[in-house]
Specification:
By secondary structure, the protein is mainly alpha-helical. It is built from 25 helices and 20 strands.
Length: 831
């Protein structure tokens, strides 16, 4: 094509025609008055300059790309792309749908002596540990627990520890102090930076309890405790009562058990961090509702339950009592400065905090913490994660759970008549209104959480009754187990289909393999026996506590949504009594569905940072509450959770080892607040750093939380041999059954099991969607009328033994012991 810049003629027009160009293309013409040789020379010079320029640009680009990739750590150790490239869509290939490998366990720092560690030396160490436990128990005999209904007591009740966990904690305490004794005698000193004593020889304490597991790996149903899920690790992978998994090695001040401290000076008080960085804000995120936080807490309680240190009889420990007596060795109170703007009016210098219970590991090594819950999304929050608790909750009639039937015919949870449970109040019990029992001791912590417990308990009975009508020949055991299996699958489906896409964004959820396979029932089997689904310590004590920033100060409790009516958050804590009223559950659930959440950022409501578990005039205790943010930060330090930069490195994100690098991860205003109280980036708590990151596109939080959360939920999916989408094995659902479960939504569960909700948003965790989120009649929701027909063929289910388990025998050593077993006996040490 010709245009005005293309010369078309020669000759008299002042152009000189060059000899014909031999080859394809037109003859080249040049303006007249310049010799061809001079012109060719200048052209060559121009071409040379242009070539050199292009080469320089290419080399510079390659250097920048190399430097950028190095700074990002764009590949994992196995060569797979980094998490960062996935989340920003800068990778040329999809990330393998595999979890990040955990940091390798540190080698025993006393390795040179471990091979020669004599039987006598090991016995001496264990004896020192037993003596430390005995001294502690003598000390506890004179202690007074926190007064009932005080904020400290309610906090203790919200972290309830069961008797089995208390036994294991005593064993963990002995192991920790045995490690202290070995380290002292061998002159172990922690090296600068993040370093710990590592894992040493095994400790076999006297008379360990041996539990015989009837592991039938072809069983259709789960064990309540989560055991027998993995053939190679039947007692540990995902089971309850095991230590949390470490994504990265711990960072204890002494390398063994003392809470994390600064490597460069002194860590600021957790309360100071809360005041300076996590102060109050009132910016809501109108796209999402409080139901997101409510379901998130309910689901979190299904997979995490950190065991708290208690006295020998399970009573609370008061670390802030005014006394000249020595403090309890497990106290780690939060320091409150004299100029604290809130607590100074109450003349308080201490916020009660008791360390999490140490978990037994059977080895010399650093302190671990105990998870009382199973790691699987199995509905154990409804049924309990111990066989005894599950048995107590069952009615043993037609597969149903026990319920309390009100005079007007409504089903409520079984009542708790314990006056010292931190929830029941004399004024309410006189009216015949009590708190409740459920599969999890934390069910009464707040009204909305209790409502969620009631909702799912009712749903179990709905499923059991539907199965009975479809299969009248089924006995109670089969009805219960099948209803439990369906409920767990529906909880998992809501988590991966509705909850995680909001947290992570649908694109990242799909890339990481976290979305259900409802569009393709023929996808490969999900299970990978090499994946350890056990909950990570950093997930339970830091990352998944992000939801506390979602909580608003006021909740919309208007009954008809026409006249504004609000309730403060702290008045909903340990206050489930409105559920006794007609439509009480409806009003609670609609309140969660109609109240927008706060933004996920570093700011928190004053209801969370000042009024947690606040007392009332009826309680006759101090009315000031606790600071949840301070408690979260203190818990991370208690667990030896390393600092923010460590986890950025582990997730292959751009480093934040210097203030200049951190400026690329958080905004300047936030960075200034952090620099004011932290001496070094290496001191910044991961909870603070992760919440300070701006959200990624399509997600509600930043890249580090996205990495930590997605990795854990990927492990839960891949490492569960009873995962609801499995394609092979007796645990699987049929295609027809799976298709029915894929219709599940939280909206449908609410509609079906509430007292009288008839209209609801299709997506109750969200307010606004690009493709709409309209109110619909409950009967129009897919899955509202659950189709039991795919479960009608009773021949596919073998006859069950009691609790659905066969008699294939596996011996597993459990580290719980009674008091008398620690008194004396032989001790063996093995490598």
């Amino acid at each position: 094509m010709a245009d005005e810049t293309t010369p078309l003629a020669a000759g008299n027009s002042g152009y000189v025609l060059l000899p014909p160009y031999q080859g394809p293309g037109p003859d080249y013409v040049f303006p007249g008055g310049v010799s061809p040789r001079s012109r060719r020379s200048k052209i060559k010079q121009l071409q040379c300059c242009m070539g050199i320029t292009i080469v320089v640009i290419v080399i510079a680009a390659l250097c920048l790309a190399l430097a950028f990739s190095n700074s990002l750590g764009n590949a994992n150790e196995d060569g797979s792309p980094s998490f960062f490239f996935v989340t920003t869509n800068e990778t040329l290939e999809p990330t393998p749908k595999k979890p990040l490998p955990d940091e390798p366990e540190a080698e025993w720092a006393l390795k040179s002596r471990s091979e020669t560690l004599s039987r006598q030396e090991g016995a001496q160490a264990v004896s020192a540990g037993i003596k430390a436990l005995g001294d502690r128990e003598i000390f506890e005999e004179g202690l007074r627990p926190s007064a009932v209904n005080t904020p400290a007591f309610r906090h203790y009740r919200s972290l309830s520890t069961n008797p089995e966990a208390r036994k294991l904690a005593r064993r963990g305490y002995v192991e920790n102090h045995a490690t202290f004794d070995i380290a002292k005698r061998f002159n172990y000193t922690k090296n600068p930076g993040r370093d710990n004593i590592g894992w040493g020889p095994r400790i076999v304490l006297p008379d360990p309890t041996v539990l015989r597991l009837d592991c039938d790996f072809n069983s259709r149903y789960r064990r309540p405790t989560g055991v027998c899920n993995n053939r190679e690790h039947p007692r540990t992978y995902g089971a309850s009562m095991v230590p949390y998994r470490r994504m990265v090695s711990p960072d204890y001040e002494d390398g063994i058990a003392s809470p994390r401290a600064s490597h460069y000076g002194r860590l600021p008080s957790a309360r100071q961090v809360s005041l300076n960085i996590h102060r109050s804000s009132y910016e809501t995120d109108s796209n999402f509702t409080v139901m997101l936080a409510v379901f998130g807490q309910f689901m979190d309680h299904d997979i995490t339950a950190t065991s708290l240190t208690t006295s020998q009889e399970g009573e609370s420990i008061d670390c802030c009592v005014e006394s000249t007596r020595e403090q309890h060795p497990e106290c780690f109170a939060v320091e409150i400065l004299p100029d604290d703007p809130y607590y100074k009016q109450y003349n308080l210098s201490c916020m009660n905090f008791v360390r999490s219970a140490p978990a037994p590991t059977g080895r010399f090594g650093p302190r671990m913490q105990l998870n009382q819950a199973t790691a699987f999304l199995d509905g154990s929050v409804v049924y309990g994660n111990l066989e005894q608790r599950q048995s107590q909750l069952r009615s043993y009639a037609n597969g149903t759970l026990r319920m309390y039937l009100t005079d007007d015919g409504r089903e409520l949870l079984p009542i708790s008549s314990n006056p010292d449970d931190g929830c029941n109040r004399v004024q309410m019990t006189r009216q015949g209104k009590y708190c409740f029992e459920s599969g999890d001791d934390r069910a009464n912590e707040n009204l909305l959480l209790t409502s969620m417990h009631l909702l799912w308990a009712r749903h179990h009975n709905y499923l059991a009754r539907g199965l009975q009508k479809t299969n009248p020949e089924w006995d109670d055991e089969r009805l219960f187990q099948e209803a439990r299996k369906i409920l767990g699958a529906q909880m998992a489906h809501i988590t991966y289909n509705e909850f995680l896409p909001v947290l992570l964004g649908r694109n990242l959820s799909e890339t990481k393999g976290l979305l259900p396979s409802s569009h393709n029932l023929d996808e490969p089997d999900t299970y990978d026996p090499e994946v350890n689904p056990t909950i990570a310590n950093c997930f339970a004590s830091a990352a998944f506590r992000f939801a506390h920033t979602l909580l608003p100060g006021l909740f919309n409790v208007s009954r008809d949504n026409s006249t504004p009516e609000a309730m403060e958050l702290h008045k909903m804590l340990f206050n489930p009594f409105s559920l006794w009223k007609e439509h009480g559950i409806d009003h609670a659930l609609l309140s969660a569905a109609n109240t927008p959440v706060m933004q996920v950022d570093r700011f928190f409501s004053l209801e969370v940072t000042q009024k947690l578990f606040q007392g009332t005039a009826e309680d006759k205790v101090p009315v000031c509450g606790l600071d949840l943010v301070s408690l979260n930060i203190q818990r991370g330090r208690d667990h030896g959770i390393p600092s923010y930069p460590v986890f950025r490195h582990h997730c292959r994100l751009p480093p934040v080892d210097t203030w200049e690098q951190m400026a690329q991860a958080v905004d300047n205003y936030t960075l200034d607040s952090i620099k004011q109280i932290y001496t070094s980036p290496q001191d910044v708590d991961v909870y603070t750093g992760a919440l300070s990151e701006p959200p990624m596109e399509g997600a509600i939080f930043g890249p580090l939380l996205s990495c930590m959360v997605s990795d854990q939920f990927l492990r839960i999916k891949l490492g569960d041999s009873h995962w609801y989408e499995r394609k092979i094995g007796p645990q699987r659902f049929t295609k027809g059954q799976l298709a029915e479960i894929y219709k599940t939504s939280l909206a449908a569960i609410i509609c079906r099991n509430s007292d009288g909700i008839t209209r609801i948003r299709e997506h109750v965790m969200e307010r606004h969607r690009m493709n709409g989120n309209r109110y619909v009649n409950c009967h129009d929701l897919p899955g509202y009328d659950f189709d039991f027909a795919p479960w009608a063929d009773a021949k596919q289910y073998p006859k069950l033994h009691k609790a659905g388990f066969s008699r294939s025998m596996t011996l597993v050593r459990v580290m719980g012991v009674e008091n008398r077993s620690l008194d004396n006996g032989n001790v063996t040490i093995s490598n």
